[in-house]
TrEMBL record:
Species whose genome carries this gene: Cylindrobasidium torrendii FP15055 ss-10
Family annotation (PANTHER family): NUCLEOPORIN NUP37, NUCLEOPORIN NUP37 P37 -RELATED
Superkingdom of origin organism: Eukaryota
Protein name: WD40 repeat-like protein
InterPro entries: NUP37 (IPR037626), WD40/YVTN_repeat-like_dom_sf (IPR015943), WD40_repeat_dom_sf (IPR036322)
GO cellular-component term (any): nuclear pore outer ring
SUPFAM superfamilies registered for this protein in UniProt: WD40 repeat-like
Length: 378
């Protein structure tokens, strides 16, 4: 059964929650707000809405998140970024006012659009709940924020209906690391609490030891905090010829296997096994959309499958499902909406007892359907 959730505005960001107690939750970001809803086998149920007053560009769930369907002491917690270059720490608990902390704007954060957010990895660790990594395309910075440490720099805006300390006391501290090229993607993994996977627009993927960054701001240097580099030869070649798409590319770190990484750049995807580095070259590659792929995601429950969304509206809002064991075969293609619709974002969701589903943001709606079905429109 297909489900649909409608937002008041166009949806620009979508992130499913993959914590053990929050697997039925999805967050979407629109023109002015972040909304969270829960998914059952028959319905989408609104949970909470945070008004931040600007278009959302990226979202990340806190590992502390738990759903109302799991616990009476539920906790909705995430970090969002907006077009005004602000970051928002958003939290809602039962019987308590919402808590919204804005930080990182102006001179205390990124100088260009924030395109990726990730809480630190590790399982049940202090670091995974406390530290958040953010990236921006044009300023080429990875910033790691300590949500518990505060500095005396003013916060751009702080809205909370609860009694809160002065804004200057609530501004999270951060350290930064500079890269040579614009950044497009950031990921963490529950298997390690010290590594961020960061990708640039030219096809280089860095596994960065962010704990080294916390020792102080650092410019890019070979052999710096990046403990390992992976390369997409096709993307590097296209960039050197000036053919690569500007600030495009997407990377996914397999949720159940720390050694598996997937990326899409333009019309090609690549897979890496970090157990066999091969000089950073991929272990497998294949073709995807001629007009280029937009986002790549691993399925969290059926380990061999990953999905890629289309970047161009020329053929409609399309998702390809690939089997990593047979990367040279034709993918299963799902047309969610006909042209000129486009997929802004998507993610997998895994409800207990049900086959994997895909949640796709198209226009003002989130459409949810089983991974193996044909076109939802039919």
């Amino acid at each position: 059964m297909d489900l649909q959730y409608d937002h008041q505005t166009v949806i620009y960001a979508l992130e499913a929650c993959h914590t053990e107690d929050g697997k039925d939750l999805i967050a979407v970001g629109g023109e002015r707000s972040v909304e969270v809803f829960a998914v059952t086998d028959t319905a989408c149920i609104p949970v909470v809405s945070f008004n931040i007053g600007s278009r959302v560009t990226a979202l990340a769930w806190s590992p502390r998140t738990s759903s109302p369907s799991v616990s009476d002491s539920w906790n909705i917690e995430l970090v969002a970024a907006d077009m005004d270059l602000r970051l928002w720490h958003l939290r809602q608990q039962p019987d308590l006012p919402e808590d919204k902390l804005s930080f990182g704007g102006g001179l205390t954060g990124h100088r260009d659009k924030i395109v990726g957010i990730s809480f630190a990895g590790g399982r049940d660790s202090d670091e995974s709940e406390r530290y958040v990594g953010t990236i921006s395309a044009d300023d080429r910075q990875l910033m790691v924020w300590d949500l518990e440490a505060r500095v005396d720099a003013p916060v751009q805006e702080m809205e909370s209906t609860s009694a809160s300390p002065p804004a200057a006391a609530r501004n999270p501290s951060f350290m930064s690391y500079s890269f040579q090229h614009p950044l497009v993607s950031i990921q963490s993994h529950t298997g390690t609490s010290k590594i961020f996977l960061v990708a640039d627009c030219r096809g280089t993927i860095f596994l960065v030891d962010w704990l080294e960054i916390m020792d102080g701001p650092q410019p890019y240097q070979p052999g710096g905090p990046d403990t390992l580099q992976l390369y997409d030869p096709h993307a590097l070649a296209e960039s050197s010829r000036g053919r690569g798409g500007q600030f495009t590319g997407s990377v996914a770190w397999h949720k159940n296997n720390q050694n598996e990484v997937a990326a899409v750049y333009g019309s090609r995807f690549s897979l890496w096994d970090t157990n066999c580095v091969r000089g950073g070259k991929p272990s497998a590659s294949g073709n995807t959309f001629v007009d280029g792929g937009n986002r790549i995601r691993w399925c969290p429950t059926m380990d061999e499958y990953f999905a890629i969304s289309s970047q161009s509206p020329s053929k409609g809002a399309i998702v390809e499902i690939h089997d990593s064991r047979y990367h040279g075969t034709q993918p299963h293609t799902i047309c969610v909406k006909p042209r000129p619709h486009i997929i802004r974002d998507f993610d997998f969701i895994s409800l207990p007892g049900l086959s994997p589903r895909i949640a796709v943001a198209v226009g003002r709606s989130v459409i949810i359907f089983p991974m193996g079905e044909s076109d939802p429109e039919q």
